[in-house]
Amino acid sequence: MRQRLSVPAPFPARRRSLRPGAAAPFAAAVLAAACGGGGQAGPGGGPPPTPVQVVTLAERPVEQATEFVATVRSRRSTSVQPQVEGFVTRIMVRSGDRVRPGQALMQIDPSMQQAAVNNLESIRAAREADLQFARQEAARSRTLLEAGAASRSEAEQAETSLSTAQAQLEAVEAQLRQQQVALAYHRVSAPTAGVLGDVPVRVGDSVTRSTVLTTIDQNAGLELYVNVPVQEAPRLKAGLPVHLLDVKGEVVSTASLSFVSPSVDPATQSVLAKASLEQSGGFRTEQVVRSRIVWTEEPALTVPIVAVNRVGGQFFAYVAESGEDGRILARQRVVETGPVVGNEYVVRSGLEVGEKLIVSGVQKIGDGSAVTIAEAPATPVHGSPAPAAGKGE
After folding, report:
1. For position 62, what pLDDT does the model report?
2. Domain-by-domain residue ranges, the chain?
3. Distance of alpha carbon 208 from alpha carbon 146, whole angstroms
4. What are the backbone dihedrals phi and psi of residue 223, each rounded to the nearest 5 degrees, phi first?
5. CATH architecture group of domain 46-62+298-373
6. Which residues of the chain have a pLDDT value below 50?
7. Among 30, 75, 183, 255, which residue has the fewest nearby CB atoms (within 10 Å)?
8. How many CB atoms neighbour CB 246 within 10 A?
9. Contact of 262 with 274, CB cutoff 8 Å
10. 377 burial type by CB count under 10 A (0-12 exposed, 13-18 middle, 19+ buried)
11. What is the pLDDT of residue 318?
């Protein structure tokens, strides 16, 4: 016989009800939290004004310049070449050594030249003996002529032999001096003081008079060689400032153009311009550097880069203006920018001198947003002198 089990009935669900009017304060609290977490509302119940910093726009001198690749070279650079041909037998220096005038650099095999010198020295000894004998004969002839034991013809012949022997000795001595000078050329010496460059030859190499053995450079008296494209050449003139830049684009040295070539290099279609560097500035000869030629310096309006937004290839900036109700509003302007000057843009259109440019908080505002002007920073963003402009105008 089956028994029925009794299951207790579930408890009835409790109905939750809100008192009339309780939903309104709750919705107001949520709305307030969404609008700013309980901040002070602006006039008319809108969002509170956004604090920003502004600068007053003003013109300042800006350099119109173009950047070029230049080479540092020494005005006191000497190429060392041998004056004789032969094989290198010894090298007494290394690349980078500092040398003094007359210091021996290397030795070229002098064996054949030394043999020629030795041969001439032997000939000179023979000519000296001939000269001594001719002098004795001339003296004997004069004595016999005075005693009447010899004719005048014999005396004159002896004098002629003496003169011939003297001339032959002088000729041999001249040849010997010439060969001794050539022998000295086999020992290559430093013509000036300075620092040695690369030594491309090795012991055993055969060299000629056209072989460059090494170079001697002095960092004092450096020159900057700038090859300017022929399109820019009409603007070149002596006296234009030239800035030398480091890898970060900072100016490390300034010089003036001292020479502009009257001709164009047919290989590169460029015009050579030179500038003398009074201070080396840490540069080395044959170093390739960045240079910037300043064409003009004119007043221009500039704005900090942080104050400009770029949207879809177009630049925008905000200025602070007074609204009809007394509030300060942010107004968006379309700006046409030029080259970068340090940390600023050169402005070509869109902004005017004297306007209040917003330089901070531009990501938090929009066109027509209410703003409050906060205290300006201790070092104004828009107040430092303009450095040289970047590439081109």
Report:
1. 84
2. 46-62+298-373, 110-185
3. 62
4. -130, 150
5. Beta Barrel (2.40)
6. 1-40, 378-393
7. 30
8. 13
9. no
10. exposed
11. 92
